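Q&A log
Question type: sequence-to-structure
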Amino acid sequence: MADYTLKSVPEPLRSKLESEAERSFRSVDQEILFRLQRSFDADDTKMSAIHAKWIYEALNSGEAAPLTDAELDGAFDRGLERAKKRRQATK
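Response status: OK
Response body:
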């Protein structure tokens, strides 16, 4: 397992971490790891909810019709154009 050192932790945050660690009967390291893992778990939960919504919408959108080659090519071209615009916007 890799070791990390946090530098320049603001005093209010350090104090809060120490208080919460003590309240939860954890070391400061354990408290930091617990909260970091919890933030990743929250992200995963949010993405799972979004995916479930997409699946629900897809299942309730009616009969599916296969895309024609022209529709598929058009969608692909629109995606490429959007990607190019995003790339140019970030330069």
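Response note: The mean pLDDT is 92.
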